[in-house]
Write a structure and sequence with these properties.
By secondary structure, the chain is α/β, with parallel strands linked by helices. The protein contains 14 helices and 14 strands. It folds into two domains: 291 residues, Alkaline Phosphatase, subunit A (3-Layer(aba) Sandwich), CATH 3.40.720; 87 residues, Immunoglobulin-like, CATH 2.60.40.10. It has a seven-stranded mixed β-sheet, sandwiched between helices. Strands 11-10-13-14 form a four-stranded antiparallel β-sheet, with no helix packed on it. The chain is globular, with a radius of gyration of 22 Å. Bound molecules: zinc ion. Zinc ion (ZN) binds next to loops. Zinc ion binds next to loops.
Amino acid sequence: MKKNILLIVCLSVFTSTGFAQTVRKVVFVIADGIPADVIEHLQTPHLDSISHAGRYMRAHVGGDKGTYSETPTISANGYNSLLTGTWVNKHNVWDNNIKAPDYHYPTIFRLFKDAYPQKKIAIFSSWQDNRTKLVGEGLAETGSIHFDQYADGFELDTIRFSHDRQRDFMHRIDEQVVDQAAKSIAQTAPDLSWVYLEYTDDMGHMYGDSPQMDTAVAYVDRQMGRIWDAIQYRQKRFKEQWLIIITTDHGRSEENGKGHGGQSPRQRGTWMITNSPDINTYPDYYHPGIVDILPTIARYMNITIPLPVSRELDGVPMIGKVSLAEMSVNCFQGKLDISWTALDPRENSRVKVWISTTNNVKSGGTDEYRLMGEAPLGQEHIDIDVKGQPSTFYKVVLEGRDNSLNKWVVSPGQTK
Ligand SMILES: [Zn+2]
C-alpha cells in the first residue's frame, strides 16, 4: 500500500513539473499611441498586477534613427514591425494605407502556422486591416493564411457603432473587441492571439496630453484586467502556461502629445509589459525594440524559424539565452569594421560573420552567404576584408551561439 502511494506521488510530481503536459499560449496586445511617460505617471492597477508577475520595460520603435532601417513612428508601420520582426526597409509598410506589404517577411502568425498547422490563431481588433492587409488573410502571397477566430470590422458597422465626433464609438468598439477576446481566451483558448485597441490614439490626436488621454489609458488598464482575469482563469483550471505582452506602436510629440510619425525621443519611446518572470538580461542593458517581440514569442512557443528568415530578423529574443546585441558595421577602404556587445562576458563561444551582397529575399529569392571570419564572442569586434567582393550593398549576419544579429551596409544614395 505504502509503495502504491509513493508511486502515485511520484507520478503526480512528474506530470506537474511539465512532462509534455503544459500547453503554452500567447496573447500580444497593441494599445495605440501611448507614450511611456504617460503610462508611467498614471495609476494602472491592472497593468501593475501583470508587470508584478513579470516586468515593465521601456522600449522603442522607429528602427535605427538616421540609417537605412529608420521607420516612421506611424501605426501600421509599428504593427508590422511587431508582426514580422523587421523594420520598414524590409516589411515595406510605410503608412496606414498599407499599399504593398512585402509578405516575403513572414508574420509571427505564418511562422506559427507553418510550424504547428493544427494550432489555433486569433485576432481581436478595432481595425480590420490588421487581419486582411497586414497579416494578409486569404492572400496567395501569405499561403492563404486563415484565422481560426476573429472579431473585427466593427468600425465598418456605422449603424451599430455610429461615428460620433467625440469618437466615443471607438471606445465602444474597443470594449466589444476586449469582450470577445476575454471570452475566447476563457472558453476556447486560442494558441496565439493579437488584441489591438485604438481609442487611446484617437484621444491623443484630438486632445494631446490631456485628461481625455488619461481616461483612455485608464480604460486600457481595465480592459487588460479583463484579459488578465481570463488568462488566470485558464491557468488555474487547465494545464496551460500563458505569456502576455502588452505594448504600443509609437509615442507622441514632445510639444503637445498630439502628433507622431517623427523620430524625436518621445515619439520613438514606447514600453512593454509582460507577465513573464523569465525575461533574460538583454532588457537590463537596452530598451528593447518592437521587433524583439517576434523572436521572443518564437522562443516561448518553440517555433523553429527557417534560416533565411532568422537571418533577416531585426530583433533579439527577450526569453531564453542570448549571446550578443548592439551590432554595428562601418565600411571603409575595402573592409568592414564590425562590432557587437557580448551579453555575458563569461560566455566562451565564437561569433561567425556571414556576408551576402544580394538582397533576393525581398523578392522571394534566396541569398548566398559566405562565411568571412569568426572571433571569440568576448572580443566584441572584427575586421573583414571585402576587397575581393566590391559592392555597394552588403548584408552582414553575426551568428552567435544563442542568437544572431544582422545589419546592412548601404552606400549613400543606394536603396535596396
Ligand atoms: Zn498608432
